[in-house]
Amino acid sequence: MAELNFDKVLASLRLRLDEVTSENEFDEISKEFLGKDSLLSDERKKLSTLSKDDKKSYGEKLNRVYKSITDNITKSKIDFIDKKYSNLENSENEDVTINWVNKQGSHRHIISQVMDEVVDIFSSIGYKVAYGPEVETSWHNFDALNTPEWHPARYESDTLYTDINLETLLRTQTSTVQIRHMENNEPPAYIVAPGRVFRSDQLDATHSPVFHQLEGLAIDKNLKFTDLKGTLEYFVKQFFGEDIETKFIPHFFPFTEPSAEVLVKWNNEEWLEILGCGMVDPNVLKHVGYPKEYQGFAWGVGIERLAMLKYQIDHIKNFYENDIRFLEQF
Questions:
Q1: Which residues have a Cβ under 8 Å from the Cβ of 225 and sit 6 or more positions away?
Q2: What is the Cα gyration radius of the chain?
Q3: pTM for this structure?
Q4: Dihedral of the CA atoms 199, 202, 207, 208 (nearest 10)?
Q5: pLDDT of amino acid 95
Q6: Do residues 307 and 111 make contact, with C-beta atoms less than 8 angstroms apart?
Q7: Measuring CA to CA, which residue among 52, 37, 40 is closest to residue 13?
Q8: How open is the CA angle 240-246-249, to the nearest 5 degrees?
Q9: Which residues of 298-312 are buried (b: 16+ CB within 10 A; e: fewer)?
Q10: Bridge partners for 135 per DSSP
Q11: Distance of alpha carbon 173 from alpha carbon 276, whole angstroms
Q12: What is the three-class DSSP state of 277?
């Protein structure tokens, strides 16, 4: 059986592709080498006259040639288009406002930097990092944390619910991660839970409806308030510097008893509140089924609050506006 010299066909194709001067020519070449009047089409018509074995063998060869022609045309077209636009970029006036050869790579956002720094401080003394969902149940966000139904935090004016039954919501605190961790892990527990939280707050200099928190939890036998105080004083001095002064003042949180706020003495001798803390209320441990011989402490700190103090940032909106002039400072 006489066969077409496919090497000559492919050689002819390559010469034709090398002479292309317009993108439209690729359609013409495809029709010329693969269309109904092409040599390849004529060879396919001969298959019906061949024996079964020859038909199979020659048919497979024709398919390989068809694929090779298609691949050559496709690659040549891509290369032609790439070269076309590359030449355009080189010939047209470049945008002097863009640094095309900047190889500095990406840069971590100030919020990420501060979050990582806080996590590293607590990790250095044995705390593990835990995460949980941002859309939570009311039970995990309120009930398990000893927050009664009448508490103002549960009002729709303060909390962003996702259903009309007020059973699911955007978490208002990462304390929910503490509950989920204790549900799934036996004591002791030493964790920090960083993440985003959501509250129905109006945007002002120090408040945002979306912000970042890090909550901590330590549950073990014989933990005392002095352990809480020592842990948080260590953190504050590591984050702000060894010379920083702290003090604890009484406060109220539904899920801790006794509760306190931690204040630091700032440069102008003013005391500023930076976080809330306390001994975990026994009702919280009861909700997750922890044995009575265990007790512990918890705390929560706003990441934006820490960053604003440490870097003297005057408005919380600066973190979210993505102004490069601001972000490049950190």
A1: 258, 279, 297
A2: 34
A3: 0.67
A4: 60
A5: 60
A6: yes
A7: 40
A8: 140
A9: bbbbbbbbbbbeeee
A10: 170
A11: 12
A12: strand
How many C-beta atoms surround the C-beta of residue 179 within 10 A?
A: 23
User: From start to end of the chain, where are the E strands?
Assistant: 128-129, 135-137, 168-170, 189-198, 210-221, 246-253, 256-265, 271-280, 294-302
Tell me, what's the pLDDT at 287?
93
Predicted confidence at residue 15, as pLDDT, reads 87
Bridge partners, residue 261, by sequence: 249, 276
CA distance 171 to 246: 29
Asked if 37 contacts 91 with a C-beta cutoff of 8 angstroms, the reply is no
Q: Enter the tokens of residue 1.
A: 């059986």
- CATH number 3.40.50.2300 given to 110-327: no
Q: Which residue has the tokens 């508490």?
A: 151
| Main-chain phi, psi angles of 259, to 5 degrees | -120, 160
| Average pLDDT, consecutive stretches of 10 residues, N- to C-terminus, the chain (330 residues) | 73 86 86 82 80 81 86 89 82 62 73 94 95 94 91 84 92 95 95 94 86 96 95 95 93 94 89 94 94 95 93 91 88
Nearest residue to 122 (alpha-carbon basis) of 223, 248, 218: 218
Terminal C-alpha separation, the chain: 76
64, amino acid identity: R
Q: How far apart are CA 118 and CA 61, in angstroms?
A: 66
Both structure tokens of 291? 């044995």
Q: Which two tokens stand for residue 289?
A: 């089924």
